[in-house]
């Protein structure tokens, strides 16, 4: 006996909802922003019905707050701000889009969209510009502080190794030369003329390096 395969039921609230944009920004001094559009997409193989809810419905007018979306189609939902007052500046409101199958009442998915009223688009752009300038100055200061220790190390004077090599070269030049019989220094410490020339050359290089720093 063959059992008929049942279509898996969609779990309530787990269906992804695709809406754009996810944030609405209204500017009090720009009437063109008082009307904005939310686009709801339906990428599925079945039709969806939707409903738009708002935390402060008295501040907004939502055209076609409920309706249906055909499979693999989209609909535009117009949102108008009707209470543009200074007391609402910076207040964050929320819209919730709930979708479900046309034959069911339970919500298969939901998506929240935030809405904010700001006083001026120019002030917003000015704040963004000031923010970018501050970030640039902070980055420049960080780079300057990062390179300062290295420059200080270079200009702080000769290293211990340089000083040690200089002392060795001076000591080598002060030792007796081979063939000096009257010297009290042991014979194995007597240096040849070529060895002293090498020591003098190295000492000259060290002296030039110290003078440049």
Automatic annotation (TrEMBL):
Domain of life: Eukaryota
Span of domain MSP: 16-143
Annotated organism of origin: Erinaceus europaeus (Western European hedgehog)
Membrane protein topology class: Multi-pass membrane protein
Keywords, alphabetical: Endoplasmic reticulum, Golgi apparatus, Membrane, Transmembrane, Transmembrane helix
Function of the molecule: Plays a role in differentiation and/or proliferation of mesenchymal stem cells. Proposed to be involved in epithelial-to-mesenchymal transition (EMT). However, another study suggests that it is not required for EMT or stem cell self-renewal and acts during later stages of differentiation.
Pfam families xrefs: Motile_Sperm
The name this protein goes by in its record: Motile sperm domain-containing protein 1
Location(s), subcellular: Endoplasmic reticulum membrane; Golgi apparatus membrane
Gene giving rise to this polypeptide: MOSPD1
Location (main, coarse): endoplasmic reticulum
Residues annotated as transmembrane: 153-175, 187-211
GO CC terms, sorted: endoplasmic reticulum membrane; Golgi membrane
């Amino acid at each position: 006996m063959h059992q008929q395969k049942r279509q898996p039921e969609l779990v309530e609230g787990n269906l992804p909802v695709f809406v754009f944009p996810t944030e609405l920004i209204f500017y009090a001094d720009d009437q063109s922003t008082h009307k904005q559009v939310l686009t709801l997409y339906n990428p599925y193989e079945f039709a969806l019905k939707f409903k738009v809810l708002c935390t402060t419905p008295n501040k907004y007018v939502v055209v076609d707050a409920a309706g249906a979306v055909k499979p693999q189609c989209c609909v535009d939902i117009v949102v108008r701000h009707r209470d543009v007052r200074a007391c609402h500046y910076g207040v964050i409101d929320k819209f919730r889009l709930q979708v479900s199958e046309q034959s069911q009442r339970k919500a298969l998915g939901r998506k929240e969209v935030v809405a904010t009223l700001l006083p001026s688009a120019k002030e917003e752009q000015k704040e963004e510009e000031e923010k970018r300038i501050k970030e640039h100055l902070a980055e420049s200061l960080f780079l300057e502080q990062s390179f300062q220790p290295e420059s200080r190390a270079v200009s702080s004077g000769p290293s211990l190794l340089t000083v040690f090599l200089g002392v060795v070269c001076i000591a080598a030049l002060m030792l007796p030369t081979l063939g000096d019989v009257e010297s009290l220094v042991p014979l194995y410490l007597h240096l040849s003329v070529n060895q002293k020339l090498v020591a003098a050359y190295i000492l000259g290089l060290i002296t030039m390096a110290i003078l440049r720093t």
